[in-house]
Amino acid sequence: MHAWLCDNPIGPEALKWTELPTPEPQAGEVRVAVRCASLNFPDLLIVQNKYQLKPPLPFVPGAEFSGVIEAVGPGVTQLHVGMAVASFGGIGGFGSHVCVDARQVMPLPSGFAFDDAAAFLCTYGTSHHALVDRAQLKAGETVLVLGAAGGVGTAAIQIAKAVGARVIAAASSDEKCALCRTLGADASINYTSADLREQIKAATEGKGPDVVYDPVGGAMAEPVFRSIAWRGRYLVIGFAAGAIPALPLNLALLKGASLVGVFWGEFAKREPQQNARALNELASWYAQGRIKPVIEHRYALRDLPSAFELMASRQVRGKIVLSVD
User: Fold this and answer.
1) Are 78 and 106 in contact (CB under 8 A)?
2) Keyword Cell cycle on this protein (predicted)?
3) Is residue 325's pLDDT more than 80?
4) Cβ atoms < 10 Å from Cβ of 190
5) How far apart are CA 150 and CA 154, in angstroms?
6) So what's the architecture of 2-120+293-323 in CATH?
7) Second label for 144, Cα 20 to 30 Å away, from 29, 50, 204, 324?
8) How far apart are CA 97 and CA 15, in angstroms?
């Protein structure tokens, strides 16, 4: 097998395309022949040694992938050789083969494309957990999605619309805002060319959003929290802007608002049955055509450095998918 090996986590430039022994699955594992993998922002952080997960060196990065089961380890009975699957395993996906815990594998229904499946679990799992579980979003409520043209942002727009909510998409360019509207956003805000609080006020008739979905962090967090509706829920997804904001807690008091943490990976481990139910609902919505990953850029897995360079430029809309040759 071949894989991108990280033995010095100083950035993507240190990754090496390496021939490695094909692994054998241990107890409770399956070996997957990878068809497609997707690039997520944590994949960049982990090879820069900036992510909370710090695997022992050397390791193969790549959290999210799809493919076909080639072998099963002892004790695995619910999965079989030849089954099409998707997985979010943390590491290992940027190679031709990977062994992964069978509990982290989702069997793919018939008709679920490998490229869509590789771009599905992390973004849609995160957004469903955030909006449906943590925020308890209801039909008719208004959701403000920050970083709305990115992977989790585009998933959040689609899930919020599937629930019956009104969506305001906030993004960094007119082109990104236009993409969000094609996905069903009811309104959009280019926060680089307009006063964000004034735009939020205008888009909500002064009420503010009931739910804020924030994978960005940074300087936008405080003005957006100041704009939230009474009893609003502010979802902390991540910090793509780099800076972790510090919010004055009196804002939560004044608005009767909730600051809600969202960590889908830990949720999936701690509450696997509830996560499985959520993934089943998402797979049903995919089959019905109500949700579909936005894949704007495709690369061969051998071209991973170019994909990382594009991601670092922060110009990605939707997801980047890599295909194994």
Assistant:
1) no
2) no
3) no
4) 18
5) 6
6) Alpha-Beta Complex (3.90)
7) 50
8) 17
| Angle, in degrees to the nearest 10, between helices 272-287 and 151-163 | 80
State pLDDT tens for residues 64-101.
999 999 999 999 999 999 999 999 988 999 999 999 99
Token pair for 95: 């190679």
Contact 155, 124 (CB under 8 A): yes
pLDDT tens-digit readout, 21-45: 999 999 999 999 999 999 988 899 8
Alpha-carbon distance 54 to 320, whole Å?
23
Instruction: Determine whether 108 is exposed, middle or buried from the number of CB atoms within 10 Å of its CB (0-12, 13-18, 19+).
Output: buried
> CB within 8 A of 113, min separation 6: which ones?
none
May I ask the CATH architecture of the domain 122-265? 3-Layer(aba) Sandwich (3.40)
pTM, entire model? 0.91
Confidence of residue 193 (pLDDT cuts 50, 70, 90): confident
Length of the chain: 325
Q: Which two tokens stand for residue 21?
A: 């022994």
